[in-house]
Design brief:
The protein is α+β, with helices and mostly antiparallel strands. The chain has 7 helices and 16 strands. The protein has 2 domains: 25-169, no CATH class; 205-335, Alpha-Beta Complex (Nucleoside Triphosphate Pyrophosphohydrolase), CATH 3.90.79.10. Helix content is 19%, strand content 28%. The strands form 3 sheets. Strands 1, 2, 3, 4, 5, 6 and 7 form a 7-stranded mixed beta sheet that branches. Strands 11, 12, 13, 14, 15 and 16 form a 6-stranded mixed beta sheet that branches. The protein has helices at 61-69, 97-100, 142-146, 151-169, 244-256, 305-308, 321-331; strands at residues 25-27, 74-79, 82-86, 91-95, 111-115, 118-125, 138-140, 180-183, 188-191, 199-200, 205-214, 217-222, 234-237, 260-271, 276-285, 299-304. The two termini are 36 Å apart. The relative contact order is 0.17.
Length: 336
């Protein structure tokens, strides 16, 4: 169950409409300590505890009902799989209830948590619906938004998108086929069949992503459908009954025939496309000969530090943990 990929956005430019600030909605401003992309503390894009998930309030129906009715709450619209943004510089557009009311289903609440001292909810809008809120902004791919939004806004958008998509595909119970309903503020779903009553929790798919090195060389690969010259780190899903370290060793060998020894954890990144959690590692290679064992990759090769700064290969997109792993390896004194 291998899958090597480069994370990132395909490169569209943004030409958002200028935004008129009203009492009904707001383009959130960046706090001084937040920066686009990787934050000062080294967090990966989409990561960070910027939303207080307020887990203890998920089971308080009275509080949830009052909050979703309040015009002081935030609503994060997700149209299909895209999120709303506007302005120069680009900022998320968060709505108040009076603006978002036609798309809010009070029986299918998706409570994200407390964001900037107000309750925040996600609202899913079917992609077959004509694009809404055109007077407020445009809906964009989250990969793009992750590269331009402040860290807290990117985190909120990723959270909303992930839960909206999960609810969309989890309408039925996987055990008995009965319809399910949102529970715990949309952080689980419950089968309506009393004889079944299964509780279903949001899916998260763990995947390892690893920069393999040997001396002044690092191992990168590419898939056939990637942009010309683009290479990235080795990645793949963790399989049942497998540790993260075992998954690193297996994926690298399956895709490149390279055996690894020492494995070191670096960091993680939520990657809601639709539901992955990327777990980043560094690994030391114990062999060098490359063979594309499983056909996942079109090419894999060793690159020196000098080659990595030459313009070829094209490096992973900056929004991705793959790029963070590459940049960290390139910045170490051992490779200058």
């Amino acid at each position: 169950m291998s899958c090597a990929w480069t994370q990132g956005y395909s490169g569209k430019s943004f030409s958002g409409a200028r935004f008129r600030y009203t009492a009904a909605c707001a383009v959130t401003g960046a706090q001084a300590s937040l920066f686009v992309g990787i934050a000062m503390n080294g967090q990966n894009v989409f990561a960070g505890a910027y939303v207080d998930r307020h887990g203890h309030m998920r089971t308080d129906p009275d509080w949830l009902h009052a909050s979703i009715q309040s015009n002081q709450s935030w609503f994060v619209p997700v149209w299909g799989d895209k999120c709303l943004a506007a302005g120069e510089p680009v900022r998320s557009v968060l709505l108040r209830r009076e603006t978002a009311a036609q798309f809010i289903n009070d029986e299918e609440i998706i409570f994200l948590g407390m964001y900037r001292d107000s309750p925040a909810f996600a609202i899913g809008i079917d992609a077959s619906t004509p694009e809404p809120f055109l007077d407020l902004g445009q809906f964009h791919d989250l990969r793009y938004l992750g590269s331009v939004l402040p860290a807290d806004e990117a985190n909120l958008a990723a959270h909303a998108r992930a839960l909206v998509i999960w609810h969309r595909v989890q309408k039925y119970c996987g055990l008995c086929g009965t319809m399910t309903r949102a529970e715990s503020g949309g952080n689980s779903r419950k089968c309506d069949n009393q004889q079944c009553g299964t509780t279903i929790f949001p899916r998260v798919d763990p995947a390892i992503i690893v920069l393999v090195s040997r001396g002044d060389h690092c191992l990168l690969g590419r898939q056939k459908d990637w942009p010309e010259g683009r290479y990235s780190t080795i990645a793949g899903f963790v399989e049942p009954g497998e540790s993260l370290e075992d998954a690193v060793a297996r994926e690298v060998f399956e895709e490149t025939n390279v055996k690894v020894g020492e494995i070191r954890y670096d960091s993680s990144q939520p990657w809601p496309f639709p539901s992955a959690l990327m777990l980043g590692f560094f690994a030391e290679a114990e062999s060098e000969d490359i063979k594309l064992n499983d056909g996942e990759l079109e090419d894999a090769r060793w690159f020196t530090h000098k080659e990595m700064t030459s313009g070829f290969p094209k490096l992973p997109y900056r929004v991705s943990i793959a790029r963070k792993l590459v940049d960290t390896w390139m910045s170490t004194n051992d490779h200058h």
